[in-house]
């Protein structure tokens, strides 16, 4: 696990990234929300950096690489060239997400899911899927206390069979781990790995215990 939000798989010489959401800023701009239009440029910088660091032979994009179906068309020619150049010597595998489904350019062949060495890679986890699975989609994050200050950080989620990746894009936001979407992970077997500036660090058992208690209290309130 890398503090950028990327995952490197040494035995497969493969890099995994998820939820880059290229051209999210321009999408919001079209709707009248004037966000700075630099998210694609900055996300590409991150991507170039981790490719240079790990020197993989293959890269898996786990969906929502593009923010919508017309994102590739809105990308500047410079950013298109940077992306293609970054992938020039790599085998790139594109998994479609709910945002870019049907919108991945014909230059890239896209898949719904793929199995690699017994592990299924897909965009949205399947709760009833019994095999090991790596997915994305939810942009997991959590609030932790560091030096007396509450800090919100993206995180990886790991359980016995499920592994959920944080978003790699710079303008993607995150869903708090306490949300009901992560209810299946609110137990002592789950591990969270938060992204720091230079390293990845694990959560304490107390953090997960507090999440479990909060989740239980919320359920009790609903039943009452």
How many helices in DSSP terms? 5
Mean pLDDT: 88
Share in helix: 25-40%
Distance between the termini: 42 Å
Shape: globular
The tally of domains stands at 1
Return the string of H and E elements: EEHHEHHEEEEEEEEEEEH
Low-confidence stretches: 219-224
Q: In terms of structural class, how would the helical and strand content be classed?
A: alpha/beta
Q: How many strands, what sense, and barrel or not for the largest sheet?
A: 9 strands, mixed
Second-tier CATH architecture: 4-Layer Sandwich
- The CATH topology corresponds to Purple Acid Phosphatase, chain A, domain 2
CATH top level class name: Alpha Beta
Care to count the β-strands?
A: 14
Radius of gyration: 18 Å
Strand content: 25-35%
Plain-language structure description:
- It is globular and about 50 Å long.
- It is of the alpha/beta class.
- Helices cover 25% and strands 26% of the residues.
- The strands form 2 sheets. Strands 6, 7, 8, 9, 10, 11, 12, 13 and 14 form a 9-stranded mixed β-sheet that branches. It has a 5-stranded mixed β-sheet with strand order 1-2-3-4-5, covered by helices on one side.
- The protein has helices at residues 24-30, 39-54, 71-74, 77-86, 205-223; strands at 7-9, 14-17, 58-61, 91-95, 110-111, 113-116, 119-122, 133-135, 140-146, 149-158, 162-164, 175-176, 191-195, 200-202.
- The longest helix has 19 residues, at 205-223.
- Residues 219-224 have low confidence and may be disordered.
- The protein has one domain: Purple Acid Phosphatase, chain A, domain 2, CATH 3.60.21.
- The chain has 5 helices and 14 strands.
